[in-house]
Amino acid sequence: MSGIKTAETEKEESIFGQLSAMGHEQVVFCHDEPTGLKAIIAIHNTVLGPSLGGTRMWHYATDESAITDALRLSRGMTFKAAISGLNIGGGKAVLIGDTSLKTEAYLRRFGRFVESLNGRYVTAEDVNMKTRDMEYIAMETSHVTGLPEIKGGGGDPSPVTAYGTYLGIKSAAKKAYGNDSLVGKRIVVQGVGQVGKYLVEHLIKEKAQVFITDIFEEKLSEVAKLTGAQAISSASVYDFPMDIYAPCALGATLNDFSIPSLTCDIVAGAANNQLADEETHGQMLVEKGIIYSPDFLINAGGLINVYSEYLGGYKKELALKQTEAIYDTNLRVLQLAEDSGMPPQQVAIDMALKRISSMSKVKLAY
Ligand code: NAD
Fold first, then answer.
1. In the CATH scheme, what is the homologous superfamily, with its name and number, of domain 158-354?
2. Residue boundaries of the structural domains of the chain
3. pLDDT 10s digits, 174-183
């Protein structure tokens, strides 16, 4: 029978089957031959407000992997906004292709597609997208955040994401060790891009022993030189002797292959969708006694920053203050997880869904 598709598996694999399983409202495919633009905008849930989430540019191997990424990332944005107390929904866009495609025309064409959604989706930076790119997109739509501070925007959200992730790591340390000091803790930061490099600075400042890895050798040695962190090989990350593993590259690094090798006490990092399979791998970490801080909760600083910009009159102090709530929320999630025996990711999702559900009723009143 293997290899033969049943009606049930075909339904699960179909686009609408996936939207139904993950609860999406709308997915838009955008195509423009002259500029080479191929984009997918996924709007997951708009009960709390218009969907807000960054645009990721990636050289996806297949269209299917781009769709899966857009669907998983936008769903995560819904939970991230909800658990952070923001009044926005979850959305995300992916641009398929190499960054060499990014011309002014390409970005502005994408901006026009964003504009066509009339504010149901508001964009920002994500992997391979910079503040300058947002400026081009903003030439065609007002539904864009992450603009430079000089233009009234909040600038690059990555430092705020890193700050929130750092606080998430500290609260996980409090749960694991009884106090939140990171002095002397062996911490591996995987991926020293926009977020990872700022996270390393916070950790070094606190006198943690920081080890870094990146597939981009030049970046790795540059960050090592700038911060004093020790570079290690990407291949040896999972069985490296460490107290804390901080994934800050791409998703799905917590999987059947990596989890059995991990000997750390804590996993807490900025990458989105760290668990390859939320249920299976969340449970595997519980069984190994590793404390996992939900990714969408502790990496919410960047969203909080662009949300402040979206509301108008961006105030950095306010965004940082709101980001600090990550510490207590994470501690609460980890305690609830311990009390209930549920994986922390599931506890955090339940908290987010509860807020969405109760707010949907509030909105029924005129
Ligand atoms: P980035 O592209 O600037 O950095 C990612 C880094 O990871 C790059 O240096 C890349 O070379 C490296 N990398 C990729 N695969 C790797 C691997 N297998 N091993 C080691 N290094 C690897 O992206 P970023 O903006 O720093 O975002 C990092 C992660 O955090 C992403 O998952 C992103 O979705 C998430 N995130 C970012 C923000 C933000 O504000 N930028 C907010 C929330 C979540």
1. NAD(P)-binding Rossmann-like Domain (3.40.50.720)
2. 24-74+90-144, 158-354
3. 999 999 999 9
